[in-house]
Write a structure and sequence with these properties.
Blueprint (H helix, E strand, L loop, with lengths): L2 H4 E4 L3 H10 L1 E6 L5 H12 L3 E9 L2 E7 L2 E7 L2 E8 L7 H4 L1
Antiparallel strand pairs: 1-2, 2-6, 3-6, 4-5
């Protein structure tokens, strides 16, 4: 799997920003078939940082429903895999210039 296929997008939320500021942890949405070693290599090659640890989690698909003028609409949000990457002390990733 190519490194460009592994990382889909960074997650920019309040929780992810707090983790990046305090603990040097960055969160990404990654390909479902990617393993921890592939994620580590992809982050190191894209951002030029030393990765210490990679934690992954698979978020299952969710059933979503909303009521509109047209009636009750039911659908599913797709499943995704997230990776929380801890980089070495003193190194940072600037996600806002690469978005």
């Amino acid at each position: 799997m190519k490194p460009s296929d592994v990382l889909i997008k960074p997650i920019l939320s309040e929780k992810a920003n707090k983790q990046s500021e305090k603990m040097n942890r960055y969160t990404f949405v990654v390909a479902r078939k990617a393993n921890k070693l592939e994620i580590k290599k992809a982050v190191e090659s894209f951002y030029g940082v030393q990765v210490e640890e990679v934690n992954t989690m698979v978020m299952p698909s969710k059933l979503k429903a909303k009521y509109t003028k047209a009636g009750f609409i039911v659908g599913r949000k797709p499943a995704k895999k997230k990776a929380v990457v801890t980089v070495a002390e003193g190194e940072t990733i600037d996600l806002y210039t690469t978005v």
